[in-house]
Prior knowledge:
Blueprint: H1 2-12, E1 40-45, H2 60-68, E2 87-89, H3 99-115, E3 119-124, H4 130-140, E4 144-149, H5 169-176, E5 180-185, H6 190-198, E6 203-205, H7 214-220, E7 225-231, H8 253-266, E8 268-275, H9 284-304
Parallel strand pairs: 1-2, 1-3, 3-8, 4-5, 4-7, 5-6, 7-8
Helix pairs in contact: 2-9, 3-4, 4-5, 8-9
This protein binds manganese (II) ion.
Amino acid sequence: MQIKRMEILASKKRFIKRECFVKNFLGVESRFTSYQKSSAVVLPIPFEKTTSYGKGTAKGPDAIIEASQYVELYDEETNTEPYRKGIHTMADMDCDGSTEVIFSNITDAISKLLNDNKFPVGIGGEHALTAPIFRAFNNHFQNLSILQLDAHADLRYSYEDSHHSHASVMRRVFEMNPNLVQVGMRAVCKKEADFIQNHNLPVFFAHHLHHDGFQQRIIQALQKNVYITLDVDYFDPSVIPATGTPEPGGFHWYETLSFLQRVFMQKRVVGVDVVELSPAEHQHHADFTISKLIYKLIGYYYKWGNT
Ligand SMILES: [Mn+2]
């Protein structure tokens, strides 16, 4: 497979050769990747400070970009070649130093993208980074919801003495903006369950979702503008085993795509992040699947998004 793609690359000369590959999502040539011409901008954020079980999310962005070199550029679902509309890849966010400084840099970087009318695509890294990303969206947009696809609610007030934990990230988000719609939960603690009930949060638990009509009920719970955060443990571990806190009973490829398509068609999706991939040896299918998912999201944005 790799050899075949390399032959294609060499013969069509469409791609940057791997030897001089410099962190470009999909590895396409520079006329498709300039900042100026691209609405979609990929921002790699290798932030990892609070992962509690399996580790390795700091390596997620590299693995996603590496795997993206093998993603087919034509998308048969939308009959489009989204890369032709431009996908710019930023340099990695610097994730050394204090969490406060890193978070404020993340918010600044996203704010700049939004001021430039970009469609930010954050790739993690651990889920904690969604809070500083969302802060920028929340400052920028009115009527904004956050749609969280995740196995976990991440609503703990704090976790292991940290307010910036992956396990409390959506509590921080909720404090900024209560328009939180959670999908796919199948591991919540009692306090989170109480919090969900007390605040009457629209939480679509995994065991609820295999009934007809659930997709539309979720979409009805969203405001006009939607930011999507996708923790890869939302997927079933058979789809994505490479994540720190896997939970059985998750979601599969096509049901996820059909749901996300509906969201893009019916709402104005203003940005996304995809977090918590922990690349593992012999599980490169997980890296590839997440790369392909990100390309799908960009494709949906170009096809149905408000560009
Ligand atoms: Mn999460």
